[in-house]
Design a protein that fits this description.
Shape: globular
Order of helices and strands: HHHEEEEEEEEE
CATH architecture: Beta Complex
Structural class: alpha+beta
Largest sheet: 6 strands, antiparallel
Strand order of the largest sheet: 3-4-8-7-6-5
Strand content: 15-25%
Number of strands: 9
Radius of gyration: 16 Å
Distance between the termini: 42 Å
CATH topology: Metal Binding Protein, Guanine Nucleotide Exchange Factor, Chain A
Number of domains: 1
Number of helices: 3
CATH superfamily: Peptide methionine sulfoxide reductase
Length: about 190
């Protein structure tokens, strides 16, 4: 029975599942960041980004990262790098480095993928209609990198009710103590 459930969830990808076992922790929800403080502009160093060729991406990314970001693949739930990451920091696009999400907006959705209540930099997120599973979903892509990230659903926690279900393979995590060294110093104040 467990393998049937796993297979069903895996084939559905980040489908619209009700979140289970929501846990508020120090790294969950944006209690310290108000809606007015959400960053909405792209980082200055990504403004001159030029997406690498397909051949370059194949050498720069792992096979899973390439499949997820370039071919709308889905990584296995509960067997990916960030689904259970509780460290403070930000998540950026693995291809472009553009800022996407914050650990302050990450929560336990029970789906096995990293889930966020909102993007840290909304201008870096593109939402498109997706009918690959024969019903409408909303695909989430990065603006500059055009990387497939995952999907957004309206079954998340209040106050926004959104669940950005994102593949770890599309992300690079930058811990708060490495933000300055990695060129993301302007985000230190949020932690």
């Amino acid at each position: 029975m467990r393998s049937v459930i796993f297979l069903t969830v895996f084939l559905m990808g980040c489908s619209s599942l009700q979140p289970v076992a929501l846990e508020k922790s120090s790294s969950s929800f944006s209690s310290s960041i108000s809606d007015a403080e959400v960053i909405i502009s792209t980082s200055s160093f990504t403004s001159s980004f030029s997406k690498p060729s397909d051949a370059e991406l194949r050498t720069q990314l792992s096979p899973l990262q390439y499949d997820v970001t370039q071919h709308e693949g889905t990584e296995p739930p509960f067997h990916n790098e960030y689904w259970d990451n509780h460290e403070d920091g930000i998540y950026v696009d693995i291809v472009s480095g553009e800022v996407l999400f914050s650990s302050k907006d990450k929560y336990e959705s029970g789906t096995g993928w990293p889930s966020f209540t909102r993007p840290l930099a909304p201008d870096n997120i593109v939402e498109l209609s997706d009918y690959q599973l024969l019903y409408k979903r909303t695909e989430v892509r990065s603006h500059l990198g055009d990387s497939h990230l995952g999907h957004v659903f309206d079954d998340g926690p209040e106050p926004l009710g959104l669940r950005y279900c994102i593949n770890s393979a599309a992300l690079r995590f930058i811990p708060k103590d490495q933000l300055k060294a990695e060129g993301y110093g302007q985000f230190v104040k949020y932690f």
